[in-house]
Predict the structure.
Amino acid sequence: MSLLQNEHPWGTGIPHIDDIEKICWQMLHEGATNRKSAMHQAVIGTSVDSIAYMRTVVLRRVDIDTRKIYLHTDKRSKKMQDLEQTMHMSWLVYDQSLRTQIRCSGAIIIHHMDDLCKEQWDHTGHHSRRYYMTDQPPSTELDQTSTGLNEALTAFDYTLEESEAGFQHFVVVETIIDWMEWYYTHSKGNRRARFTYNENDLSGSSWLMP
Ligand SMILES: Cc1cc2nc3c(=O)[nH]c(=O)nc-3n(C[C@H](O)[C@H](O)[C@H](O)COP(=O)(O)O)c2cc1C
């Protein structure tokens, strides 16, 4: 999805708030399914002891009907310690070509060794599996700069069967979105809207002063 200078994602005229909410979910879905989308990468935020921690992740899956979004990570990572404390996460995506920022947040479910985790792992390519196969967990201090991969992992010299060793460290984190905010920048003026959800249903929509 890319728009020319004066085209808006809602078409012509005044945007309808319901359309904006649908467009946001379409953009997120496109982000998950199209590697070339700027929204394929997202920033996620966790909070521990009143300090925010942010990092980039790949937006792996978006279920529009249930308002759920997913990432893959290593169970041994620092972010998992944060998430296990709060069971809550915030997301941010921005696509300059669409002039659109989407922020959203919600409670999480951690999938480890369950059916969903297995399904996502089965779709995880040979190349992407190797960091889950390392003995040293993420954030281990190293004596010198290194990729942390041994020779075999560096050369992708492992079988699909051997890569299954990484499954024990592979986690899928599901966020059940409870609010979402859209911010659109334009030379004629910015626009902003907020949406709230209750269970799977849209429970509130409002335009906000940008
Ligand atoms: C483009 C890009 C994509 C990334 N995707 C992921 C990802 O999908 N999952 C992940 O755990 N880390 C990903 N990372 C690494 C994280 O940003 C982060 O540095 C790492 O996971 C350690 O974070 P933590 O110490 O808070 O756990 C990515 C980094 C970049 C630059």
User: Anything to note?
Assistant: Residues 41, 53, 55-58, 71-74, 77-79, 138-139 surround flavin mononucleotide (CB under 6 Å).
